[in-house]
Model the fold of this input.
Amino acid sequence: MKKDRNPKKPNLGGNVLIITIILCLSGLLMCLSTTSTNYFTKNYVSPYRDFFEQLFFLIIGFILINIIIKLPSNTIKVSALPIFIFSIFLLVIVLIPPFFVSGIINEAGEVTKRWLNTPFGFTIQPSEIAKLSTILFLASYFSMINKKIKIKHVFISLILIAIPAFLIFEEPNFSASILLLIIGFFSMIIGGVSFFHLFIFIAPSLAVIYLILLKNQRLLLRVKSLFNVYSDPANSGYQLFQSFIAIARGGVFGKGFMKSSQKFYLLPESHSDFVFSVIAEEFGFFGAMVTIFLFLSLFFFIIKIALSSKDHFDVILVGGIGAHIFIQAMMHVGVTLGIIPPTGIPLPFISTGGSALVVNLIEIGLVCNVARRISKKDAK
Done:
């Protein structure tokens, strides 16, 4: 009996798609649960308005996945610089009236300029596009250097990461700018930058971030809220206190779908920034652990795809995307559990928001594109 010389390898791209579909369907359920309350609290015409809007962006995202999977590798590489420049352009114009969505004020009374008006009736969040464009551009840049990285290359790449991070900070969106920096640093490490070279620049960067925190009362308040949850539950600790109540009420198996009480008036941004708290309340500890397990599994398969590729560009691109999705998910969970200060970071695929969902699905399309090309090479 002859042995099979070409044993069937696991379909890593298929695994990534299956987990993504499960997360997106979970996101639709949570969108329905958390936004249907607007029918009662904000006098919406229909309790399904946001649900159908999220479904529309989900369909757009999967159409883009089908297109991106079939793109040649060279097309993706060539598009990296134009996409990065375009994302910088969007970050600039979103700071200029009347392009940004007006009337949104944060807790410090500052006008937030995070969403860009479009003539099509929906808004775009440029910071979401900037995260992906930064990963794409760094993958292109470091693959072009071809592992011959010098200190000047590290400096140039850090400047290029700092530009979108600074523009996002000016929105103001401190949490998204920090996340972009973290994603950039991870992409640089995957690209071959030594820890020594990175440390030379990270140390002063951390000092600058610390000084910004000291001088910004809004950011200081968020840091202090982490330690004032029980001493000041009605003011600085309000968000986390309500999140803790939601999680505690869920118990082991939860109160049941649509049965969260915290999402009514009490838990701020329950559809986005604190959606994990509602998951814990409605589906309990079990549902929360399943959600975390899904993100861990997705990260595992994405990294396996990155490690299976022999193309330096693909390794950085897929590794950077894996780091983005996983770190953002864990930051979101960390906020709801009171491990890190409230940051306003959505949970990928699950939090309501068209721009974030479409960008995350484009990232999955790019990962599956690499997985498809790897499978083709293995089949030869």
Q: What stands out?
A: The CA atoms of residues 16 and 191 lie 23 Å apart. The mean pLDDT is 88.
